[in-house]
Amino acid sequence: MPDTTALPAARDPHAKPAAAGAPRPSRAIIRINRAIVAANVWIYRRSSGKVLGKFGRLDALLLTTQGRKSGKRRTNPVGYLYDNGRFIVLAAYGGNAVHPGWYHNLRSNPAVKVEIGAETIRCTAALQKSGAERDRLWKALTDVFPTFLKFQDKTERLLPIVVLTPDDLDPQEL
User: Fold this and answer.
1) What is the pTM of this model?
2) 143 neighbors 79 (Cβ within 8 angstroms)
3) In this predicted model, what pLDDT tens digit does every residue of 62-104 receive, in sequence order?
4) For 49, which of 4, 30, 53, 111 could close a Cys bridge (C-beta 3.0–4.6 Å)?
């Protein structure tokens, strides 16, 4: 069985604290980012993932979470690795000092929707906290997308690895 646990609403005790006084993205940057994400999602869906379906050598999926404050559904393009029937993603946020909004949403409600191409899959998110399995997944992610190493060097926080397990996956298959 993989070394994952359901995402608790409490702070991850293994995460490095954000750097003291580390700047958060400005409101203007957040607005620009939202516009880019919306365009990316639109293009990905219209092309069934044929356009904008990759981040370098890393495949991309659309991750839909429920807003922890607003309750609204939010969709974000996220790079992923496929591993034993599960989708492995990294909450990198470009190495910013704070976690991406979708990560906070997952912590409040781990039930998510994943879109890969034209396929939609209901999943449950879990945080890969520590140990040999986290190390293996980190190496696999950085082997495919070495920029994640730069993102980790840029921030004091430990970049969270999130495992998205399809709800219809038999745990015996893992």
Assistant:
1) 0.81
2) no
3) 999 999 999 999 999 999 999 999 999 999 887 778 888 899 9
4) 53
Nearest-angstrom CA–CA distance, 168 and 15 = 30
Q: How far apart are CA 107 and CA 123, in angstroms?
A: 14
Residue 134 Cα distances to 3, 5, 81, 139, angstroms: 8, 12, 13, 9
Question: Is 106 within 8 Å of 162 (Cβ atoms)?
Answer: yes
| Residue at 40: amino acid letter | N
CB 162 within 8 A of CB 127: yes
Q: Is 151 exposed, middle or buried (0-12, 13-18, 19+ CB in 10 A)?
A: middle
Closest CA to 90 of 72, 111, 76: 76
- Whole-number Å distance between alpha carbons of 26 and 96: 11
Name beta bridge partners: 86. 83
Distances (CA, A) of 144 to 40, 59, 80, 91, 157: 21, 10, 10, 16, 21
Between CA 157 and CA 15 the distance in angstroms is: 6
